[in-house]
């Protein structure tokens, strides 16, 4: 935040911060996209119209990871639409609050509230019943919001989409929607233990749509730790696969 | 002697507005022979339902004050508290739940679990009130009790099980099949008073068998005997099923669901049987009080009429014979002529008349034993006071009371009205802790404060009707607050030498924002720069400044004051001088500490048919609302948002016209948040104008 050259005193070779600078540093909250460490240069990771997926068994942390991706976007003032096909609005909201508190653990309560108040308008939660969700319905809701200038998402999170039942058609429609409205969509993909994986780590039930996705990562629990493995996109090289999720906070921690 | 009172039920009827609570209560009173004619809520006959005893309630068709009444059903004594359904009166609902042992959660067969049902359910959870559910309005078009049961499971997390299945729905609603006795029940006679029990119609037999299986399966979790009976495939008696269900209900682990139509007189009697079989008696519920002699340690009360008295005044009413105090006796016996002590002020009171209430009629009784609800005459007290025997020093746990968020000035036409208004306000404040009043010292106006626009409206109407006070109200005002956003130092000297003894004081230190308290004062003066005897005067001066911000005159919150230096004069320094100095220092530092205005933000939940989702979101957005999310549920959609209270005036009318009257909303206080700059400027201007006109 040192844009003011007068606050630099070269003779001491020390940067002196004025009071104003300190306030500004305190106010700014930086939280990197947890997936950027897989080797991406851009915080968005996905391009406009792009699809990303987080694969895992039940309860490993798919939603937690995508909520962090969403929080990163919100902190960058990019609007996020969170579509949940499992949970009520209040429950989704709790996910965000919990993870935001974990991310902002170093701040005091008033500052956390202040930051939260600032970023909350960049999030919109929609919940549907699984059977009631479709691309045309989502588009109808989106137009309601966009026409009235209420909300225009930059990133969409879809949590709870049934890949094994849906077939390819609905996803193609969603892809079209993502392109049309310049959005990127992240999905959670629930994998089942009884369904065998292919060599590339992808479950059989997901193969028919893999080509629609630009980035696919997998969460795998090993003992007390959760590993993030890149299956498609950057860093599929196993040597780089060292991202770990802390099961207590569900935040990324540096790998071994 | 400990008497067991298994045949007493203290129950409440809680639900969303307009789901038919008062009609249901009316039918209960009719079937239990407490009244001999049935009136509708919005009575065409001009009489109105018995429980809506206030004139205003009858007119608006809503229940405001919860009237208590008692009736008898098949040898059981049932005390019923009718509770208001509108969220503005939530304090009434909370108070009722505090004194109840069980509740009937009334749901609409068409609307299902609505936003208010969620609030009421949360309150029931807070006070651990076991409940059964009654799905009303099965005669309406679109009724679907099983959808409501599934909503009870998904939205409220209840383990809901059907006790009945309907025989016909909508226009064809005829009766119900009781899944415990496996009989079909029809309700004959002009008012459905004759219950006809016959064999289940063939076309419903299969469904009934399947649903009974589900019921027994759910109940068996709570009874080994029932599980054994199921395994042996014999001896599954009604008693065994009810016993298991009762166990689960008392633990709040199962919610038995009855269904019918109060308006069409269908299936009220079986639900009353359910109250007898399934809801707790006073000894089933553990009530605790705080021991004032023992550091407010919690003590469990014993439901024994021989023990010292512990009773809670949970509601006051102004009747024609003076103040009527509704009490719930938790321990001991409150008898006519006995002396009780009001724990709040230590005053001894002699009990005069003891009555049991039936809406606005009453009957005299000799005493009220533990477990009973009744009313006392001529006792001066406030709502929420605890009464005990002499020598017992316990208090019932205080009830959660939210702070008011809206205020309005009221003025009277003449002196007579002034007197009547004073009397009315005094009464309302005692009755309702969320309603407050005070006189603004500057404008000399009487200000009333409450929980919402409707809340204040109702009290103003009551003033007019019940007390004959001709009052007019000013525009409602939002309870804004001011706070500071950064630290500011001060070093202020107060000096006055105008003849006689002078005034001298100097205080130095700083003020800074604090998030978890309204006001913090810290003294860091060492070496006697300010003599110790003046420190409290300093604190007092700073505290006085908090009452009104120097610029906008809203109350200030969240400020920490630290003093670390100062000076005094041997002759000219005094308490007064230091108080004045502190006020000056605060004013000086406050404006440099970047003050901001905070406003109350309300959580607004709108339920609307899906086709109006867009317009409703637009309405909320126009009101500076932030939409948290939308929840699609078949034909209906629930929109959760946070909207500043200042933007919510008149919202109900606008919402109605935008949605053809099909949407409804609830509103409750959520949080205080900083006002945006443009709005703050507007408020500043308004405040300046008000100040000018007041001067």
Care to give the gist of this entry?
The complex is a heterodimer of chains A (256) and B (695). Chain A is an alpha/beta fold and 256 residues long.
Keywords:
A: 256 residues, alpha/beta, Rossmann fold, 2 domains, nine-stranded mixed beta sheet, two-stranded antiparallel ribbon, 11 strands, B: alpha+beta, Elongation Factor Tu (Ef-tu), domain 3, Alpha-Beta Plaits, seven-stranded mixed beta sheet, 16 helices
Rg result of chain A? 20 Å
Give the number of helices of chain A.
7
Q: Approximately what portion of the residues of chain B adopt beta-strand conformation?
A: 25-35%
Q: Number of DSSP strands of chain A?
A: 11
Arithmetic mean of pLDDT of chain B: 82
Which regions of chain B contain 5 or more consecutive residues with pLDDT less than 50?
Answer: 42-48, 58-66
Indicate the CATH topology of the largest domain in chain B. Answer: Rossmann fold
Helix count, DSSP H or I runs of 4 or more residues of chain B:
16
Largest beta-sheet characterization of chain A: 9 strands, mixed
The largest sheet of chain B has its strands arranged as 18-17-23-14-15-22-19-20
CATH top level class name of the largest domain in chain A: Alpha Beta
Question: Any overview of this molecule?
Answer:
The complex is a heterodimer of chains A (256) and B (695). Chain A folds into two domains: 30 residues, no CATH class; 223 residues, Rossmann fold. Chain A has seven helices and eleven strands. Chain A has a nine-stranded mixed beta sheet with strand order 5-4-6-7-3-8-9-10-11, sandwiched between helices. In chain A, strands 1-2 form a two-stranded antiparallel ribbon. In chain A, helix 2 packs across helix 3. The two termini of chain A are 32 Å apart. The N terminus of chain A is likely disordered. Chain B starts with 7 loop residues before the first strand and ends with a helix. By secondary structure, chain B is α+β, with helices and mostly antiparallel strands. The radius of gyration of chain B is 29 Å and the shape is globular. Chain B has an eight-stranded antiparallel beta sheet. A seven-stranded mixed beta sheet of chain B has the order 2-3-1-4-5-11-6, with helices on both faces. In chain B, strands 25, 26, 27, 28 and 29 form a five-stranded antiparallel beta sheet that branches. Chain B is built from 16 helices and 38 strands. The interface between A and B is medium-sized, with 30 and 23 residues.
